[in-house]
Amino acid sequence: MKRIAALLLMLPLAACFESGEGTHTVSEYLGNDALRADQLSKCRDNPGELAQTPNCRNALEADGKARLQRMNKALGG
After folding, report:
1. Domain contains 12
2. What is the number of other CB atoms lying within 10 angstroms of the CB of residue 38?
3. Per-residue pLDDT tens for 4-24?
4. Count of domains in the chain?
5. d(CA 55, CA 64)
6. 3-state secondary structure of 41
7. Domain that holds residue 49
């Protein structure tokens, strides 16, 4: 009975969390250009709400690393 009561009390809390795509790592964004571009587009479209989310931060970090890799390759490194 106590377990059922605890479950019923915790159920409204589950509604507070977004069920979304999950958090992607920097490596995942670095390896998938389309995923990174899509996430960066979402972040730039709504920076007030999304700028400090883990996905936006990871996509931005991956974008910086990808740019450095492209510059290094262009310079022959």
Report:
1. no
2. 13
3. 655 455 555 544 445 467 999
4. 1
5. 14
6. helix
7. 22-77
18 within 8 A of 50, measured Cβ to Cβ: no
- Is the Cα torsion angle 69, 47, 25, 61 positive or negative in sign? positive
Decide if 11 is inside a domain: no
Q: What are 30-65's pLDDT values in tens digits?
A: 999 999 999 999 999 999 999 999 999 999 999 999
The answer as to whether 9 is a domain residue is no
Q: Is 7 helix (H, G, I), strand (E, B) or coil?
A: helix
Domain presence at residue 65: yes
Place of tokens 């509604």: 15
Closest CA to 29 of 49, 1, 53, 57: 57
Residue whose structure tokens are 């979402």: 42
